[in-house]
Amino acid sequence: MIANDWVCSNYCEEQFNECLMKVDACSNDKFGVEVLNKGRCGKVQHPEILEEEYAFGVFELNEGDELFLECNAEGFPEPEIVWYQDDEIVGYGNYLIKSVSAADGGEYTCEAVNCMTTKVSKRLAAVVVKETPPAPPARITTAAPVITTTEQSTFDNIAVDTPRATCAVYGDPHFLTYDNNAYTYMGMCDNVLAMDCESARWFVYGRMRPCGKTGGSCLESVTVFVDNEILELQRGWLVNRNGKKLVTKNRKGKEIVVKGTNQDFTLLFDGAMLTLTATIDTRE
Q1: What CA–CA distances, in Å, run from 94 to 51, 131, 134, 259?
Q2: How far apart are CA 42 and CA 219, in angstroms?
Q3: What is the DSSP letter of 16?
Q4: Does residue 171 come out as left (phi exceeding 0), alpha (psi in the -120 to 50 range) or beta?
Q5: For residue 39, which of 15, 70, 69 has the smallest C-alpha distance?
């Protein structure tokens, strides 16, 4: 007998329990399905963008100027905001902020998405990037005399970085450390996989939970902390940020920039691997 434990999926569909939700998703190719909330879905409200069409009008900008656009939407579940320049995705979230170049001219559209398949959009601005005036003619000067020397080049003294060390978690689960030691642990735990041992600015945690029918455990999620910004990488190529999910599988081959207050992350799913990149400024 199947227990009555209603769930609402992120497709805004009610299922009798989580097991039936996953069976339905498998049968109907609903990639990235997950539980939106326990219990029934309630009344679904399609997204509505609050800004008017062309709310920001036409911007005439010089190269290097800052473009700032804002888009807000209402609905249930809470809509995700996607920004387009013409037909290309250029950002996510309520704000689009960028320093413009010659390639940034065009129409900018805000798209609000919920229930995985329900979306609305509005064109909010057009950007015209002014041409940069040509540089003045170069002054012609007399070349300096060439002086030869037999002294050793200072380039011979440049130190070459050694290859970066890596660590890995795989299987049920096996751990390979930075110093090439191998371990196996078949239990539940939250492991520190890597960390900043000097200034504690970043950590990477792995959560091991039971899986399969043989009593083993698997890597359920990876959580990355950088300068108080947190991203959780989950099974199914999902990324959780403050309770909001990004389905990277639906954006194969396209970089996703997740902007934070202190640190930005770049996500890229190539069809087989999800890569997270964060650049940390170590300058004093």
Answers
A1: 11, 29, 37, 11
A2: 33
A3: S
A4: left
A5: 15
Side-chain half-sphere of 26: how many Cα atoms within 13 Å?
A: 6
The predicted pLDDT at position 187 comes to: 74
Of 192, 184, 188, nearest in space to 223 by CA: 192
Q: Are 96 and 164 in contact (CB under 8 A)?
A: no
CA 17 vs CA 13, 29, 32, 58, 211: distances in Å: 11, 18, 17, 50, 20
Q: If DSSP codes are grouped into helix, strand and coil, which group holds residue 56?
A: coil
Query: 210-244 pLDDT, tens per residue?
Result: 776 566 778 888 899 888 888 888 877 788 887 77
Q: What is the pLDDT of residue 213?
A: 58
CA–CA distance, 115 with 44 (Å, rounded to integer): 9
C-alpha–C-alpha distance, residues 43 and 73, integer Å: 17
pLDDT in tens, 96-120: 998 999 899 999 999 998 876 678 9
The number of beta carbons lying within 10 Å of the beta carbon of residue 137 is: 6
* pTM attached to this predicted model: 0.43
State the Cα–Cα distance between residues 265 and 225, nearest whole angstrom.
11
What secondary structure letter does DSSP report for 142?
Answer: P
- Asked if 221 contacts 207 with a C-beta cutoff of 8 angstroms, the reply is yes
Backbone angles phi, psi at 22, to 5 degrees: -70, -35
Q: Please give the Cα distance from 274 to 256 (Å, whole number).
A: 11
- Residues constituting the chain: 284
Backbone angles phi, psi at 106, to 5 degrees: 145, -170
